[in-house]
Design brief:
80% of the residues lie in helices and 0% in strands. The protein is mostly helical and 96 residues long. Helix 3 packs antiparallel against helix 4.
């Protein structure tokens, strides 16, 4: 799931055509992969993430860059906040 998530995001960013920027983004995605996997598997975030991805893709298909940007910012912010809250609350106890 983590690899697919990265592929999805990088496919969206690829349109910028800035290879240096894309390399930096890919490096950050790779560094964050372990946290994305925790978010998706341990914190039951998968359905929410998929819904947000669908909304983001729909905005891109409509060529609504402003809406896509708002969705992406919210998607990244809320995922990060969910992960940080889980770490603070219970240290991310693993599911059985």
């Amino acid at each position: 799931m983590g690899a697919l998530n990265g592929d999805f995001h990088l496919a969206l960013y690829d349109a910028c055509g800035n290879h240096r920027l894309l390399s930096l983004i890919e490096a950050h995605h790779n560094a964050a992969d372990r946290y994305v996997r925790i978010l998706l598997s341990n914190l039951d975030y998968r359905n929410r993430s998929q819904t947000e991805h669908r909304d983001l893709l729909a905005a891109c298909r409509r060529r609504d860059g402003d809406k896509a940007t708002r969705i992406l910012r919210q998607h990244l912010r809320e995922g990060s906040e969910t992960l940080v809250s889980a770490i603070r609350e219970d240290g991310l106890s693993r599911k059985s």
